[in-house]
Amino acid sequence: MLLMRSILARLVATCVTLFGAAVIVFFVIRVVPGNPIAMMLPPGATEDDIARLQALYGLDKSIFEQFVIWLGGVVQGDFGTSISLRQPVLDLVLGRLPATLELSIMALVIAVIIGGAMALTGTLRRETRTEAAIDVTGGMALSVPDFLWGLVLILLFGVLWPVFHISGRVSPSLDFDFATQFYLFESVLRLRFDVWADLVSHMFMPALALAIPLAAIIAQLLKQSLKETMHLDYVTLARTKGYPEASVITREALPNAVLPTLTLIGVQFTFLIGGTVIIERLFSYEGLGNMAIDAVINRDLPLIQGIVILFALIFTVVNLVVDMTYAALNPRLRHA
Amino acid sequence: MHDARSTMRRPIGLRLWLSGGWVTLLVLGAIFAPLIAPHDPLYQDLFAGRMPPVWVDGADPNFLLGTDSLGRDVLSRILYGARLALTVALVAGVLTCLIGATLGLIAGYYRGWVDMVISRLVDIWMAFPPVLFAILLIAVLGTGLTSIIIAIVVIDWTRFARVVRAEAMTQGTMDYVASAQVAGRTRFGTMLTEILPNVLPTILALLTLEMGIAVIVEAILSFVNLSISTDAPTWGGMIAEGRTSVHQAWWVLVFPLITLFLTVLSFSQLGEGLKDYFDPVLR
Fold first, then answer.
1. How many Å separate Cα A276 from the centre of its chain?
2. The CATH number of the domain where B188 resides is what?
3. Considering CB atoms only, which of A143, A220, A316 is closest to B269?
4. What is the pTM of this model?
5. B66 vs A325: CA distance, rounded Å
6. Distance of alpha carbon A169 from alpha carbon A88, whole angstroms
């Protein structure tokens, strides 16, 4: 009962946040001085043409009327029409979303693998030079943001030792018709591993750049919880029974130490998704973030609004899911 | 950048000396750029385009770190770029700190509806990807130094507000605060004389971290060509140019990148060092 009520409260809070985000974006971008309509028309356009086009995009009404119309549309899934690309915003945004999702999830997987390995190794070799080395590496990885790691990776694996592609999502020379926008997923399902390898070669560096700071955070927190758990009686018991240290860590300590890290990963995952904006730009990866920057440069108001709202939706939903997972996994909260 | 705290006791000395040394060097370089820079950072010498740094074959000893495709001196542009980067770090950092910390302090100490409004705003802010938000604001405000600073303040005040609020809340429940109240201090007076001094170390550490973040945001904005005028020397702008010509002239990317990397690392290490230094448990 209490859980239901707290979930309901969280849902309401999420809606308030989303509405607030919508209000801010809508009004902030309407302060833009440049007239997007004037930019769409050829130089010889008359005042009449401009007025007609403005009416077409609803830009002739008052700002509050525009907001109500826009919000009414959004609720029905209509995000308006992109000014620069002249297609429905929803189609454009949904077309790019899979690329960004695949990149983010790949980055998350890499971060969990690297961070987990660092934490486990650090716990196994605690109080040694190995642990100190892991701490120093982690500290450095955390101090520098994904944008800079991306550039470093471009230099290392794109120029110095060119093993990966440094731009795009898929090689244009590759003759393959994708039926969906989930390229990576589709290539596996259709058993085209040559296509899969090409996609991974494009995605690996941007994903790694996004993953490095998160991996360091995971390593730090997971190692800390593991080391705390290692002092508990039941772990000592397992050790006196003669289990090897590595299996004591993975079988006994890990399940109890992992919960705080899971929560943190959830929160940090939203930061990672936010990072895709500039990382996609850096690697010319055709995702939402790259489209967003173009939309801002072209002053494409409907498109910007759609993308920002979608990001806000993803962020709040991820946070909501994290909270609920935490509640479901944590017995203390479940029975409260 | 993150709130995860390391419990490790780290050697503070060397880290702080190295980071402090680099930042000092950079500040001096920025202030005296007109005196030390070997060339005018804007001067284009199309006959000396893409000259490699001096220790590479075919270099011109006049250009220590080489030139870009327009024949502009890389070293001079890095030095002048430091002026913008450090101005943004200082001004945006301090303003963000003032606004964010004040809101956090008020929310955490006064609680009630003020806290509710501020916390709700923080939630809304957290729903925006920061880079996209920054770019959006620049598009609205137009390019230029003031816009960059405003954008950073508008985006990052939550960083201070969240942490300071939490700290002020913990401090507010302490006995010494209650006794200050009993002794007849006003709420506002207690906040300034009792709570603020105890939260100040955290604020200073956050401020140092924020300076590094401001440098990165400025670099990202100039990377997407939304910082200040196009040909002005900025690290992000140099990196953007270097990125496109990385196969022909690696030095155009590498040197500004190293500078930016060390600067961000130094600010971050200084901030972490301050945090450890002020932490009574670690000391």
1. 6
2. 1.10.3720.10
3. A143
4. 0.88
5. 54
6. 23
Cross-chain Cβ contact B247/A159 below 8 Å: yes
Judged on CB neighbours under 10 Å (0-12, 13-18, 19+), A268 is: buried
**Secondary structure of residue A162 in the 3-state scheme:** coil
The reply to whether A157 touches chain B by the CB within 8 Å rule is no
Is residue B253 classed exposed, middle or buried when 0-12, 13-18 and 19+ CB atoms within 10 A define those classes?
Answer: buried
Q: What is the pLDDT of residue A336?
A: 44
pLDDT per residue over A36-78, tens digit each? 666 566 666 777 777 777 777 677 777 788 888 888 888 888 8
Are residues B139 and A224, on separate chains, in Cβ contact within 8 Å? no
Query: Burial level of B51, CB count in 10 A (0-12/13-18/19+)?
Result: buried
Q: Which domain covers residue B65, as residue numbers?
A: 13-31+61-278
Look at chain B and report how many structural domains it folds into.
Answer: 1
Least confident of A20-34, A264-278, B107-121: A20-34
Q: Is residue B96 part of a domain?
A: yes
Select from A227, A222, A260 the least CA-distant residue to A245.
Answer: A227
**Are A274 and B130 inside 8 Å of each other by CB?**
yes
Residue keyed to tokens 């300590």:
A253
For the ranges A150-159, A307-316, B37-46, the lowest mean pLDDT is seen at: B37-46
End-to-end alpha-carbon separation of chain A, Å? 10
Structural domains present in chain A: 13-75 (no CATH), 92-334 (1.10.3720.10)
For residue B183, being part of any structural domain is answered with yes
- Considering the domain boundaries, does residue B53 fall inside one? no
Q: What is the interface pTM, i.e. ipTM, of the complex? A: 0.88
SS3 of B111, please?
A: coil
Find the range with the poorest average confidence among A42-56, A93-107, A279-293.
A42-56
